[in-house]
Amino acid sequence: MKVIFRFLSGLSLMVFASIFISPKVLWISGLFSLMIPLVLAVNTILLIYLVVRGSRYFFYPLAVCIVGLLFLNRTVAIHNVIEADHVLKVLSYNVRVFNVYSHLNTDFVSSRKTIDWVENRDDDIKCLQEFYVQPGSEIFSTIKAISKKNPYYHFEPTVTNSKGAQFGMAIFSKYPIIHRGSLQVSESPHNSILYADVVKDEDTVRIYNVHLQSMSIDEQQLTNSNRETITNNLKQLVFQLKHGFIRRAAQIDNLCKHLDRSPYPVILTGDLNDMPYSYSYQKLKKYLHSSFENGGRGFGFTFNGRMFFLRIDNQFYSEGVTLNEFETHRNVKYTDHFPISADYSLE
Q1: By the 8 A CB rule, do 336 and 94 touch?
Q2: What whole-number distance in Å separates Cα of residue 6 and Cα of residue 25?
C-alpha cells in the first residue's frame, strides 16, 4: 500500500511540474498540465478519506495538497476594490468578428448589441481580438463607431474579403499612441500580437493585445454518443491539442523576449487560449503579474460555452504599474467569450 501511495504522489508532483516544461521540448507536458485540477481534486478527496479512516498514509496526499496550494490563487480569487485617482481603465474582449455570420444571430441583433456595448464603455484602452470592420456598412463600420470615444487606434488587418471587409486585432485608446507594431507569431491570420505605446499625462505604457493559437476544440467532439465517432474524435482532439500546445509555447517564448525589452511599463491583455495551469501562463508570470490573481473575484471563467470552466482570457501587468481592480463581465453574453477589464495606476 505504501508503494502505491508513493507512486500516486510522485505522479501528482510530476503533473504539477509539467507547467515548467515547454511543449516544444515535450508536447505531452501540455496535456499533463490540463490534469492539474483533477489531480488536486483526487488528492483532496483521498486525504479526507484517509484522515476519516485514521490511516497513517494520509501524509502522502497531504504533501501533494500542500504543494498544490501554489495553484490556489490561479483558480479562485478574493479581493476588494481599491479606490484610486488617475486610473487607466483597460478592456479586453474577444468579439468573435461581432457575430457577422448569419448562423451567429438573427438580423444582426447581437452584432449591434456587441458593438454598442464596446463603443459606449468609458475605458481608456480597448483591446479587441477577432476584430471585424466593413467600411461603409451601416452596422459594421466598427472603427468609426469605437473611435468616437477612443480616437487613437492601432489596427492591422490580417485578412480582407471580397467585400472589402477586414479581419484582425485592434487597440483603441483615449490617449495618443506614439509607437505601434506587431509580432508575426503564426502562419494563421487569426492569431497575432499587437502592441502600442500610449502616453497619458507624463507617463508612457506599452499595451499588448494578444491572441494565441486556438485550442481548436469543437464542442460537438465532446458530446457525440456514437462509440466509433467518439474514438475518431478523441484521436483528432489529441492531435489538435498537441498542435496547439507546441504553437502556443513558441508564440509565448517570442512574446516574452519582446516584452522583456520594452522601454516602458507593460500591460498585456488578450485571449491566451490556455489555462492558468499551463506553460504559457507560467512563462508570462516570470515577467508579469496576473491581474486576476491580484484583483479578481471568484473563479473568473471567461469562456461562454459548454466548457464554461475555462479561464483563457487574461490581463497582466509589469513593475511600474499598480492594479486597483479586475472584473470579468459575465453578464455580457454576446460572444463565446466574456469581456474582462481592469483599472491600473501608473507609478
Answers
A1: yes
A2: 27
* CA dist list (Å): 100 to 113, 137, 189, 306: 12, 12, 17, 22
For 122, counting Cβ atoms within 10 Å of its Cβ (0-12 exposed, 13-18 middle, 19+ buried), the class is exposed
Give the containing element (helix H, strand E) for 109: helix 109-120
User: Where do the structural domains in the chain lie, given as residue ranges?
Assistant: 2-75, 88-346
HSE (side-chain half, CA atoms, 13 Å) at 86: 9
Half-sphere exposure of 78 (CA within 13 A, CB side): 1
Tens digit of pLDDT for each residue in 126-145?
999 999 999 989 999 999 99
Q: Of 50, 74, 42, 60, which is closest to residue 5 (Cα–Cα)?
A: 60
Given the C-alpha cell 452584432, which residue does it identify?
A: 111
Side chain identity at residue 52, one-letter code: V
**pLDDT tens sequence across 69-120:** 999 999 999 887 777 776 899 999 999 999 998 777 778 999 999 999 999 9
Burial class (CB in 10 A: 0-12, 13-18, 19+), 290: buried
Predicted local confidence at residue 209, as pLDDT: 98
- pTM for the whole structure: 0.92
Superfamily of chain region 88-346: Endonuclease/exonuclease/phosphatase (3.60.10.10)
288 CB neighbour count, 10 Å cutoff: 21
* Residue 243 C-alpha from the chain's centroid: 18
Please name the residues in contact with 280: beta carbons below 8 A apart, sequence gap of 6 or more: 212, 248, 249, 251, 252, 272, 274
Report the alpha-carbon distance of residue 300 to residue 323 in Å, rounded: 16
The span from the CA of 216 to the CA of 224, in Å, is: 17
Closest CA to 315 of 164, 205, 226: 205
C-alpha cell at 323: 492594479
